[in-house]
Amino acid sequence: MTFPAWSVQDIVAGRPAVRVNQLGYVPGLPMRATLVSADVDPVAFTVVRDDGLVAHEGRSAPWPDRPEPTSGLPVHVLDLGALGEGTFRVEAPPSRSHPFRVGARLHADLRDDALRFFSLMRSGTEILVPGYERPAGHRDTAVPAWTGPDAQRLYPGWHDDGTYDVSGGWYDAGDYGKYVTSGAIAVWQLLGILDLVPRRGDILEECRWQLDWLLRMQVPPGRPLAGLAFHRVHGTTWSPVPGWPHLDPTERVLHRPSTTAALHLAAAAAAGARHFRSVDPTYAHRLETAARSAYDAARLHPDVLAPDDHARHGGGPYDDGEVGDDLYWAATELWLATGDHAYEVEVLRAAEHASDPFDAAGFDFNDVSAPARLDLALHGGGLADHDRVVDSVRDGADRLVALQAQQPWGQPYAPADGWGWGSNGRLLNNLVVLGVAHLVTGETAYRDAVATGVDYVLGRNALGQSYVTGYGADHSHHQRTRQFGHDLDPAMPPPPPGALAGGANSVPAPDFPYDTRLVGLPPQLCYLDEPTSEVTNDVCVRWNAPLAWVAAFLTG
After folding, report:
1. What is the pLDDT of residues 336-362, one digit of tens each?
2. Which domains are delineated in the chain?
């Protein structure tokens, strides 16, 4: 396998040849690094404390594939030993790594910053966080359902002359759209952090902000497609880049309700009801009622699907032609929240319940059988085949561990057909699968695999760059966003600490302009930390959510 030598060399130039987790490592968990070197024999290296003392000496393990296919680079793997707490560098002359720390609660700040990102993404409210102050934007208290020729072409036969209060919620990504099928899985994942760190009031508050918006997106009784949820809300054209939300000149509209949006609302609201029941039973009842009615409406309207408009009308389509996995997820969360036998029957008879939901490419909004299976493993002890459910999680995790062992960078993600948009989010979702496998089996190998896998996101990758703003000596901080548009308008703030970049993207999307600067590069190198690279350097609540979960898991 060969790649354009000039492009590989130019992209990695100036980065240390020793690639480490630039945040650091947890005592007692694996500590590994990757060395870029053309040497075919083992290379001597040392791990040196910040006071100059040598903490560990070793020899590298040359990787047999040269170049390694995901990066196009010749590499070695370094085992850094069992380091105690402190600050270190790896030296493999003539190269030195970036500094890193070893500490028991190393990921606590990352967890908190990854969660704080959601507060900064709030729509319709004034932001008072120092450095990120802004007036309320997009109050969305009286948004019309979309009408006109474009709406009729995209949604033939649908007409709704109402206006709706769809205020609140989170902006989805670097744009100002709010999307049910992206926002629901994000809030579900934040709720899941409560399984790791119970009684975190800040998490409940942030989840409530998004859940309230999801409830407002449900079509009320008496209106067309009542009980379903509007699929998305955003401008009829794309808003300017960059641009303050309160100055957005676009006309906001609601897109036709969809079956999948209703089912995602049902799943997230049911999960919310389960978590809120002990602290606010009245609110939990409201969530449960909405979840039940959304599920019933989806059953009544099983094929109202969101079409792919190729992002021509001011927002992403979030299209999904298969609803079986969405029904499975919604029924699962409703059964876990209510104990209602009717939902258990739906879970057990779903084709998705008998299938393997764990794809090495990682789950996402359009493939939600895995979230259902994870929650059944964690909370579905009364299910008739719960042992089989746990075994399926174990099997999925075992495959990810085996895949991870085949990667010199430690990531349990390496799709042969290319690394897709938001690869960092999908990779982190694979780490969530491994984390849940540890929680339900107690096996430390899965916990170790999570610790090793997060190294990739924090700097042990082909670029030698951490993908999380503020974390690492060399980190992403030029993400392509409207609201954190400092690169393009110095009056605006930069991306905040804890913001995750989408990551390497080697797969051009149909009918979407791909960054021609990336053509022909190995998958891991298909990333640019520039505000012009939407396909690799966007942010998204759906990616920051698993980052927060993994950081919480590793914090303990």
Report:
1. 999 999 999 999 999 999 999 999 999
2. 1-104 (2.60.40.10), 108-463+536-555 (1.50.10.10)
